[in-house]
Specification:
Strand content: 15-25%
CATH architecture of the largest domain: 3-Layer(aba) Sandwich
CATH class of the largest domain: Alpha Beta
Number of helices: 13
Strand order of the largest sheet: 6-5-4-3-2-1-7
Order of helices and strands: EHEEHEEHEEHHHEHHEEHEEEHEHEEHH
Helix content: 25-40%
Largest sheet: 7 strands, mixed
């Protein structure tokens, strides 16, 4: 007797600055899902925030993703009302499309699980996770709290530091603080020393990040970063080597092998351009050429950071290290790491013995596991009279 397929809604696109990277990740995930186990329901979110069913998602993503184009306006508009038994209904909002597709009362079949492939704001920051919690549907990845912490790099670094996990020296700075004291950023930068890095507090894919070699470059870096966030970070440089490690699990997370990012040519750090635009901008070495003791230490830090930040499902932990390994810091933790053809998260697990289809299976299993545990909890209290 054949097993019933899970209907998995894959969310991609979104309103963040990482919209185009999300399309690349979704293309990889949808193309790798086992058709014998899953019925994929691709749901694209445009830059305007509208949700649309994308029937021919593979072709659509192949046209848009490789060239870093934004998602178009095709597809059937949908809303996602809650289903009484803890699943979602994908509901069309257009009568003509409703009839053409053979749906009834505007309702498409219910979704059993959501696989968010949304990077950055309005997708990786707890907002979509909160919606799915209210709807009572299982979803892959960190919950509301873990997602919010993962996006807010300032809070993330505070928690890591408080729990003995090393992070570089840094200061956070809001737009209001700069407006009230024009010299504050300069004073903080002088304390950190040059070169330093300026970055938006809550973003990813190295968008808005600038290396600041001297005071003369600080003003332009601040202006760029404040385009993307009301709070920014000034971080002391740790220029040497960059490493990444993948984490998978819920209460008992496991770490993959460690990989190294080797920036090439004119690039001074692992920037957006070196990642996605310049084909020769960086290369990876998996596993990294590391002393076993350093590799073991990084992997242990990864699982500790995962627990400290209340994460579940998946995360990628990025490290900065001096060339002689005299210092090693957690740069940041990403709760929805990239799943593009060049992304480290799936590559690290492949080198650790887990193929991409199996990795997707495991992530879905972990999501269902958490949902089942939460479904057994009581959310109301009846006092004894």
């Amino acid at each position: 007797m054949s097993r019933k397929k899970l209907r998995v809604g894959v969310l991609f696109g979104g309103r963040s600055g990482e919209h185009e990277i999300s399309l690349r990740s979704a293309l990889t995930v949808i193309s790798s899902m086992d058709p014998e186990r899953y019925e994929v329901v691709p749901i694209g979110i445009g830059r305007d925030g509208h949700w649309r069913l994308c029937k021919d998602a593979i072709s659509l993503l192949k046209r848009s993703a490789p060239k870093l184009h934004a998602l178009g306006h095709g597809g059937i508009p949908v809303s996602l009302p809650p289903y009484p038994h803890g699943r979602l209904l994908a509901q069309t909002t257009n009568n003509f499309e409703r009839l053409k597709d053979g749906t009834h009362n505007g309702t498409l079949n219910r979704l059993d699980l959501i696989f968010p492939m949304l990077h950055g704001t309005f997708g990786e920051d707890g907002t979509v996770q909160g919606l799915l919690e209210l709807a009572g549907i299982p979803y892959v990845g960190a919950g509301v709290l873990g997602s919010a912490i993962g996006m807010d790099k300032d809070i993330q670094k505070r928690l890591l530091r408080e729990n003995g996990i090393p992070v570089v020296r840094y200061f956070s700075l809001t737009r209001a603080e700069v407006a009230n004291d024009r010299q504050r950023a300069r004073r903080l930068a002088d304390q950190l020393g040059y070169p330093l890095f300026v970055k938006p507090n809550a973003l990813g894919s190295s968008i808005g990040i600038r290396r600041v070699p001297s005071p003369a470059s600080l003003s332009a870096a601040l202006k760029d970063a404040f385009q993307y966030d009301r709070k920014i970070l000034l971080e002391a440089a740790c220029e040497g080597r960059e490493y990444e490690c993948a984490v998978l699990g819920n209460d008992d997370p496991k770490a993959s092998v460690v990989g190294e990012i080797i920036v090439q040519r004119r690039h001074r750090f692992y920037s957006y351009e070196s990642k996605y635009v310049d084909p020769g901008g960086a290369k990876v070495k998996i596993p990294a050429d590391l002393p076993q003791s350093i590799s073991d230490q990084m992997r242990e830090i990864c699982t500790s950071a995962f627990k400290t930040l209340a994460l579940r499902g998946m995360a990628r932990v990025d490290f900065l290290a001096r060339s002689d390994f005299s210092e090693c810091f957690v740069n940041e933790v990403n709760t929805i790491p990239g799943f593009t053809a060049i992304s480290m998260y799936p590559k690290l697990w492949e080198e650790s013995g887990m193929t991409l289809p199996k990795l997707i299976d495991r992530l879905i299993e972990l999501a269902l596991e958490v949902h089942q545990q939460r479904s057994r909890l009581k959310f109301t209290y009846q006092p004894r009279l």
